[in-house]
From TrEMBL:
Record domain Csd3-like second N-terminal: where: 133-252
Keywords from the named record: Hydrolase, Metal-binding, Metalloprotease, Protease, Zinc
Chain intervals for the UniProt region annotation (Disordered): 1-33
Cited InterPro entries: Cell_wall_metabolism_enzyme, Csd3_N2, Dup_hybrid_motif, M23ase_b-sheet_dom
Taxonomic superkingdom: Bacteria
Gene3D superfamilies from the UniProt entry: 3.10.450.350, Glucose Permease (Domain IIA)
Cofactor: Zn(2+)
Protein name as catalogued: Peptidase M23
Locations listed in the record: Cell envelope
A Pfam family hit: Peptidase_M23
Entry keyword annotation includes Hydrolase: yes
Domain M23ase beta-sheet core, residue spans: 264-361
Length: 405
């Protein structure tokens, strides 16, 4: 299907369709008047506005102004528009449009308002308030199924997996009987409707009998991060998996080399992923080496501190701006998955080097990030206790509601 042409001239020539008018009882009294009109399937904004009684020139100017902040082509059938008319006019087709207002999504308000010389458009964010919500479950078959069964929103689950990926290998560590609990913010509008699920503020995972608790904490400088109960940052100095959505295809250790055919030590881990998948810097550091290196193909080595380095092989290409000496931050894209060098298929070969020797990224005890101390630690403990209490309270209330029906 070819895209609809909705240039202003063409809109003006579109056959007039009569839009549904809601609450448009004609008010002959001289007072400010408001209509709500709906965009019908197959119609367009010009037809909606003229159908509501606006003169073509007025509708045209309002739509032209709208284009500054919103592309009218993105409007969908069912979209409602509020039309506010100036108070000094009576309710006939000569109505003077004062404001056209609509909400293209739950968090945005678009307004087109009359000015001295036409119209001007602006966007505003809908004001949202947060209300904490909780979810918990025990893993039976998989984390996904447990989350679904317990009504945990997918976005919250994904955030939890991301937060825990520094410490928990979700493919290998999780097993039946493991459990989780999480508290997150539900973002609501003025009517109290849920607009979206917000950030996790507290989570706990019990994996193979070990508790991993984390608390969102904003320090006195305003930096938010997640910490365990001892005030140690959950973020590690290095990521174990510097790629998203990849499958561990070959572990660290002795193996029969898939290309060379004989057994030898595999000094890294392989993550199978399609060519072009972004590869992240596993930690903050400096690019030590970038270029072609034998069987590694396109290769990058990063130095993170005096002890740790990471290396990445078989890349299809390097990210822009990556050259020896450049600084990178954890999570920055440094290159893309490929199969350069000795490789049978596209994958990332990833190494962690400790004192210049490759170590198993799965087992290496990751150097931790920041640890809170002194006043900051005291402040953190007050926050974490509050979150813990709040979680307990909400889960009791939730249990009462659940057992009430
Ligand atoms: Zn490898």
């Amino acid at each position: 299907m070819s895209p609809k042409h909705q240039d202003a001239e063409e809109i003006a020539s579109v056959a007039e369709t009569v839009p549904v008018l809601e609450g448009s009882e004609k008010n002959s009294e001289i007072s400010s008047r408001q209509d709500t009109v709906v965009l019908e399937k197959g119609s367009n904004l010009m037809a909606v506005l003229t159908g509501a009684g606006l003169e073509r020139s007025v509708a045209y100017n309002a739509i032209e102004a709208l284009r500054d902040v919103y592309n009218p082509r993105k409007l969908r059938a069912g979209q409602e528009f509020d039309l506010v008319y100036a108070s000094e006019t009576s309710g006939d087709t000569g109505d003077l449009l004062d404001t056209l207002r609509f909400q293209p999504d739950a968090e945005t308000i678009v307004s087109v308002s009359r000015t001295d010389d036409g119209f001007s458009a602006s966007t505003d964010k809908v004001e949202l308030t947060s209300a904490p919500n909780v979810s918990s479950g025990t893993i039976d078959q998989s984390l996904f199924m447990a989350a679904e069964k317990n009504g945990m929103p997918l976005s919250v689950l994904m955030e939890m997996i991301k937060l825990y990926s520094y410490d928990v290998d979700f493919q290998r560590d999780i097993q039946p009987g493991d459990s989780f609990e999480v508290m997150y913010d539900d973002m609501k509008n003025a009517k109290g409707d849920l607009v979206r699920h917000g950030d996790i503020v507290y989570a706990s995972m019990n994996v193979r009998g070990k508790d991993y608790r984390l608390y969102s904490y904003t320090d006195s400088d305003g930096n938010q991060d997640f910490y365990n109960e001892n005030g140690e940052s959950f973020r590690r100095a290095l990521m174990r998996t510097p790629i998203n959505g990849a499958r561990l295809s070959s572990g660290f250790g002795m193996r029969k080399h898939p290309v060379l055919g004989y057994s030898r030590m595999h000094k890294g881990v392989d993550f199978a992923a399609p060519t072009g998948t972004p590869i992240f810097a596993a930690g903050n550091g400096t690019v030590e080496r970038v270029g072609k290196v034998g069987g590694y193909g396109n290769y990058i080595r990063l130095r993170h501190n005096s002890t740790y380095e990471t290396a990445y092989g078989h890349m299809s290409r390097f990210a822009k701006g990556i050259h020896a000496g450049s600084r990178v931050k954890q999570g920055d894209i440094i290159g893309y998955v490929g199969m350069t060098g000795t490789a049978t298929g596209p994958h990332l070969h990833f190494e962690i080097l400790k004192a210049e020797h490759q170590v198993n990224p799965i087992n290496v005890k990751m150097p931790s990030g920041r640890t809170l101390t002194g006043k900051e630690l005291n402040r953190f403990h007050a926050t974490s206790e509050k979150l813990q209490k709040q979680y307990a309270q909400l889960s009791i209330e939730g249990a009462k509601v659940a057992s009430a029906d």
